[in-house]
């Protein structure tokens, strides 16, 4: 099989928010997985009916979603990329062009390794499917592509393997990026979340901003395919578009320079914590019309508003090593 992959070499980590670092013994970080909690579908869909006002910082979320309101490690947050923060923490550069082989991977290394897949219309059975397949879904809260259990794409964090379960879109973005010219944080037009789940249920999410501000930019072909084949009816999947190839690697911008990483949560109820977040600083450029089309499928803003960072450490990983393996 032709496999494309993107390697993120983690050469140095820049600590941006220096408060008290999250430790492995932190009760929230230890919080175990959500598989028995309400709101999680078998294919990695985590949304359940909102009981509170989603515009009110989740304060009104009720049991069983209390963690949305009382959790101290919630997502999204405003990611700080100001010059001040960087100058406090000089970057030590190294050029690791030859990352170690998988069994010897460094404990903090991160590699994205996705593979092309073929669309299926067996949406209901996707959780049991042992082949390499995906399905277009409208979950009612997000435009989503869900993968079968046989899909080989994965995120590698050190020696840990996190298979890719699904990816979905938010319009506008959930995370904000604080830069010198955006002291209150820049919100992008959209955000793509690749959701990975380890065998024991632990989650890792890769976030990519969507930038539709380039007036003349051409349509992104993968996004175009997703928009065309996602059903308009909520809580359904595409039952007519079988056999379409899709390579999720092509949704990762090639010019990535930095990845923010921190301990967070699901952004939809039950808002379970213990989720490892990786958010790329460089957005994926898409056509403005595509942002509009994406939004029109759900006709609502489906972003959760920014949560308190509290005593969390946000790191920036530098010197991304990107490799497209054509073998
Ligand atoms: Zn999401």
Provide structural commentary.
Helices cover 11% and strands 29% of the residues. The protein is mainly beta. The chain has one domain: Carbonic Anhydrase II (Roll), CATH 3.10.200.10. It has a 15-stranded mixed beta sheet that branches. A three-stranded mixed beta sheet has the order 3-10-11, with no helix packed on it. It binds zinc ion. Zinc ion is lined by residues 168, 170, 193, 267.
CATH superfamily: Alpha carbonic anhydrase
Rg, rounded, reads 19 Å
Binned strand content: 25-35%
Instruction: Compute the separation of the termini in Å.
Output: 8 Å
pLDDT averaged over residues: 74
- CATH class, named Alpha Beta
In this entry the ligands are: zinc ion
Shape: globular
Point out poorly predicted stretches.
1-63, 83-103, 319-327
Global structural class? mainly beta
CATH fold-type name: Carbonic Anhydrase II
Question: Can you name the CATH architecture?
Answer: Roll
Short summary of the structure?
This protein is mainly β and about 325 residues long. It has helices spanning about 25-30, 65-70, 85-90, 220-230, 290-300; strands spanning about 5-10, 15, 80, 110-115, 115-120, 135-140, 145, 155, 160-170, 175-180, 180-185, 190-195, 205-210, 235, 245, 260-265, 275-285, 315. Helices cover about 10% and strands about 30% of the residues.
């Amino acid at each position: 099989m032709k496999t494309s992959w993107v390697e993120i070499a983690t050469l140095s980590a820049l600590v941006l928010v220096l408060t008290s670092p999250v430790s492995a013994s932190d009760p929230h970080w230890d919080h175990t997985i959500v598989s028995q909690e309400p709101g999680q579908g078998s294919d990695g869909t985590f949304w359940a009916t909102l009981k509170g006002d989603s515009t009110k910082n989740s304060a009104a979320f009720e049991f069983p979603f209390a963690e949305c309101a009382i959790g101290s490690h919630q997502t999204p947050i405003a990611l700080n990329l100001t010059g001040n923060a960087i100058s406090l923490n000089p970057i030590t550069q190294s050029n690791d062009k030859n990352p170690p082989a998988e069994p010897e991977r460094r404990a903090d290394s991160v590699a994205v390794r996705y593979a092309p897949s073929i669309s299926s219309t067996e949406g209901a059975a996707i959780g049991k499917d042992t082949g390499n397949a995906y399905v277009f879904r409208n979950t009612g809260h997000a435009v989503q592509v869900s993968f079968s259990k046989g899909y080989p794409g994965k995120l590698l964090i050190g020696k840990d393997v996190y298979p890719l379960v699904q990816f979905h879109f938010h319009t506008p973005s959930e995370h904000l990026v604080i830069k010198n010219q955006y002291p209150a944080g820049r919100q992008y037009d959209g955000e793509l979340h690749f959701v990975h789940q380890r065998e024991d249920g632990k989650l890792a999410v890769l976030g990519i901003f969507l930038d539709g501000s380039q007036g003349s930019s051409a349509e992104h072909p993968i996004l175009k395919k997703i928009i065309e084949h996602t059903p308009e009816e909520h809580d359904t999947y595409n039952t007519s578009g079988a056999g379409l190839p899709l390579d999720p690697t092509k949704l990762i911008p090639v010019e990535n320079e930095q990845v923010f990483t921190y301990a967070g949560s699901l952004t939809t109820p039950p808002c379970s914590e213990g989720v490892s977040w990786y958010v790329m600083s460089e957005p994926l450029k898409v056509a403005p019309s595509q942002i509009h089309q994406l939004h029109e499928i759900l006709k609502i803003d489906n972003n959760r508003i920014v949560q308190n960072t509290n005593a969390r450490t946000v790191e920036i990983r530098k010197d991304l090593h990107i490799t497209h393996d054509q073998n």
